[in-house]
């Protein structure tokens, strides 16, 4: 993994970096510096082979969680930065929060938010550019909340004509849902193609909750279209 420190960074720098296959990180929440990362192996989700298990499908269909988008970025990134049993430390520092809040205000960053009885219990955020979505982080406070958020994200990206879902680094959890690793060269090629297209993140209106059945139907419709 190659990296280079950068002391002064703006939202424009971040957007330019994404087009080059780079993304910023910090060593820890308390670190003031950021550095660019360009992994030799990149984790991505092929949008036509996302795995929805029977149990996950049942949870999504049950609509246990109300799923919204772009409602409360600050709460989502705070949830992603909070310590968790599988993640005691975070790379999300104050500078990351500032930059991605600005990118959210500019319309490049989006959130998928899962609520239960009005409480935010899981979600994710990432950057949309062209036909690419760069997933940054996700979290859950209730079982399966992050998986439901990811399922809704993939359904939205498929329906909106996106070509690439980048998840940066591979984990066992992501692999179980269909993520794969590709080389840096293959990623840059896929990225170039995706940026030549224009996805529509708002293919479904941003001001209403999307039901689980609707999301699953979108996944099924996409699979049928791909096979026909």
Could you list some keywords that capture this structure?
single chain, Aminopeptidase, three-stranded antiparallel beta sheet, disordered N terminus, 26% strand, 38% helix, 228 residues, seven-stranded mixed beta sheet, alpha+beta, globular
Task: Describe the protein's architecture and organization.
The protein has one domain: Aminopeptidase (3-Layer(aba) Sandwich), CATH 3.40.630.70. It is 38% helix and 26% strand. The radius of gyration is 17 Å and the shape is globular. The chain starts with a strand and ends with a helix.
Low-confidence stretches are 2-6
Bin the strand percentage: 25-35%
What is the top-level CATH class?
Alpha Beta
Helix content: 25-40%
Cα-based radius of gyration, to the nearest Å: 17 Å
CATH topology name, in short, is Aminopeptidase
Q: Quickly give the structural class.
A: alpha+beta
**Biggest beta-sheet profile:** 7 strands, mixed
């Amino acid at each position: 993994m190659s990296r280079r420190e950068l002391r002064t960074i703006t939202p424009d720098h971040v957007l330019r970096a994404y087009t080059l296959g780079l993304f910023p990180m910090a060593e820890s929440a308390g670190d003031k510096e950021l550095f660019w990362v360009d992994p030799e192996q990149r984790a991505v989700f092929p949008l036509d082979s996302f795995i929805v298990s029977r149990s996950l499908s049942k949870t999504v269909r049950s609509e246990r969680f109300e799923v919204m988008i772009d409602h409360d970025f600050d709460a989502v990134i705070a949830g992603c930065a909070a310590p968790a049993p599988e993640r005691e430390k975070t790379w999300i520092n104050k500078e990351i929060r500032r930059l991605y809040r600005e990118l959210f205000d500019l319309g490049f960053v989006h959130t998928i938010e899962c609520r239960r009885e009005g409480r935010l219990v899981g979600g994710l955020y990432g950057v949309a550019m062209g036909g690419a979505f760069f997933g940054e982080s996700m979290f859950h406070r209730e079982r399966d909340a992050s998986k439901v958020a990811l399922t809704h994200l993939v359904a939205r990206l498929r329906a909106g004509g996106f070509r690439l879902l980048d998840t940066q680094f591979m984990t066992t959890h992501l692999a179980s849902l269909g993520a794969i690793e590709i080389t840096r060269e293959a990623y840059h090629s896929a990225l170039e193609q995706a940026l030549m297209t224009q996805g529509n993140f708002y293919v479904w209106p941003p001001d209403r909750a999307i039901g689980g059945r609707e999301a699953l139907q979108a996944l099924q419709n996409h699979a049928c279209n791909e096979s026909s």
